[in-house]
Design a protein that fits this description.
Elements: H1 2-21, H2 25-33, H3 42-54, H4 58-67, H5 69-72, H6 76-88, H7 92-105, H8 110-135
Helix pairs in contact: 1-3, 2-3, 3-4, 3-6, 4-6, 6-7, 7-8
């Protein structure tokens, strides 16, 4: 029975991966939302988050990430996805915190590093611009 469940899970993950690579985000969301929340595993929920972020439903992504946060605490991609969602709702402070955690967990991930560095630079430039305006 367990082997059958593993095959079903592998098939589902392959299908979700295919849809994600082909930008069929609505199919991912529809398929996963049919699975009761208490029966979704971490990987499946992660696809749902990625799909929500991809169609700019950032608040939905944040809500889903909250559901799996216990399993995501040590996953750099969990923190990156949360940072990405925060960034896109203009919550730069929390985005920076999450990008920093993601970067500490995986310093070799270039995408995480680039987002983290770009946000730091933009926040620094924005802060300096505002200080210059106030002092003028």
């Amino acid at each position: 029975m367990k082997e059958n469940n593993n095959l079903m899970k592998e098939k589902l993950l392959r299908k979700l991966g295919y849809w994600y690579e082909n930008s069929e985000f609505d199919k991912i969301i529809d398929k996963i939302l049919k699975i009761p929340k208490d029966q979704r595993d971490y990987e499946t929920s992660s696809y749902l988050v990625k799909a929500y972020n991809s169609i700019e439903k950032f608040q939905s992504a944040i809500e889903e990430l909250e559901i799996i946060k216990d399993k995501g605490r040590k996953d750099p991609l969990w923190h990156f996805r949360l940072g990405y969602a925060y960034f896109n709702i203009d919550n730069y402070e929390d985005a920076l915190k999450e990008y920093e955690i993601a970067h500490k967990l995986d310093e070799n991930n270039k995408i995480i590093k680039n987002h983290f560095e770009a946000l730091k630079i933009n926040l620094f430039i924005g802060k300096n611009y505002l200080e210059d305006e106030i002092n003028t």
